[in-house]
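Final report, results section. Input specification for complex C-07:
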Amino acid sequence: MSKVLIIGAGGVGGVVTHKCAQLADVFTDIILASRTEAKCKKIAAQLKRPIRTAQVDADNVPELTALLEKEKPSLVINVALPYQDLHIMDACLNAGIHYMDTANYEPPEEAKFEYSWQWAYQDKFEQAGLMALLGSGFDPGVTNVYTAYLKKHYFDEIHELDIIDCNAGDHGQPFATNFNPEINIREVTANGRYWQDGQWVETPPLSIKDTYDFPEGIGPKNMYLMYHEELESITKHFPEIKRARFWMTFGDAYLKHLEVLENVGMTGIEPVIYNGVEIVPLQFLKAVLPDPSSLGPLTKGRTCIGCVAKGIKDGKERIMYIYNICDHEACYEEVQSQAISYTTGVPAMIGAKMMLEGKWMKAGVWNMEQFDPDPFMEDLNSYGLPWTVVELKNTGLAS
Ligand SMILES: NC(=O)c1ccc[n+]([C@@H]2O[C@H](COP(=O)([O-])OP(=O)(O)OC[C@H]3O[C@@H](n4cnc5c(N)ncnc54)[C@H](OP(=O)(O)O)[C@@H]3O)[C@@H](O)[C@H]2O)c1
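Structure output:
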């Protein structure tokens, strides 16, 4: 008997709600709350079993606390935006509710994300006997669990880790982002950063390029080094890692549009005055770009996200590659959403399931790689994101 309150009725929120609704014995009572309740009702209408919906502004801590105290869920699944993380954690502490999210906190006024703000809640959650699970999406999320799984079963020490996120899908639009455009563009236009011998090396945005030959017929794609939040927690929790990098594939058309938008100032987050009104260029851009949820029925092709790890086992060097391949059209058929939201929403449901079943339950603030990866990996196979692990002769990266 577990009641969950899901916050955020966007692309990811839709998938989490569908997946939780499929598991009626774990998620016995579901409430979907968001800033615009009509979006919650639209998702609810797609489901085979009834759920409840609510309107809430998650940035209004007293309002959210009151909703949590009234509903008394066992867990809040936060799939609103990273800006809401701390407010939702505060409301969970006020009301005595466990917390989970898929993206670390980012201040709205600065394009910067790091775990320090949320890790600072460690004592408060521990003292309240509550758990906060951070980053239970795919990347972060599954990539952290993959790393823990490789370490547990294939390595004594991991020395090099390359997390590679490939979207080989095509939505047929000249330019669109697969999840919230504001969050996506802030991430892609930020400096790259990777971990090397105990320190961060910063690189200009998208300045390091490689090509990877993806498995199962996806083939070679260009990919670019970026900073991604799981690098921070993974290098903290696996201090033996000497180098950790994150790569994402981008097509030439996406990069061409992005370069032009950046050059003309449309990706900026500093407000400008237009006709006497203050507007943030990136927020205006979001308003004119296709809504990511509209891409669901249009997107064809597959994603392939995984980790290449090099290290030692019994004194010998080895390289392992672990990945999932997900088909956009199959996702749409199952939950009316493309694979980017699906690959985030399924691990969010599984993270919640781990907590509610007590398999991962410990007071404090935790990252995914701090728990036993095995039950989570089993559930990935059962609930739509099966994985493959192979031994490689070389990493397949040129650099
Ligand atoms: N770990 C991963 O692999 C991964 C991958 C992709 C995305 N993500 C994360 O997943 C989250 C959701 O992404 P998405 O693509 O689903 O975004 P989205 O489509 O923009 O949806 C966000 C939802 O949150 C709601 N919201 C925003 N501010 C709110 C507030 N103050 N109070 C209540 N609701 C609020 C929005 O409401 P309105 O509709 O009213 O605006 C919208 O329904 C983001 O944090 C994103 O960074 C993680």
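The chain has a mean pLDDT of 96. Residues 339-356 form the longest helix (18 residues). This concludes the modelling results for the funded period.
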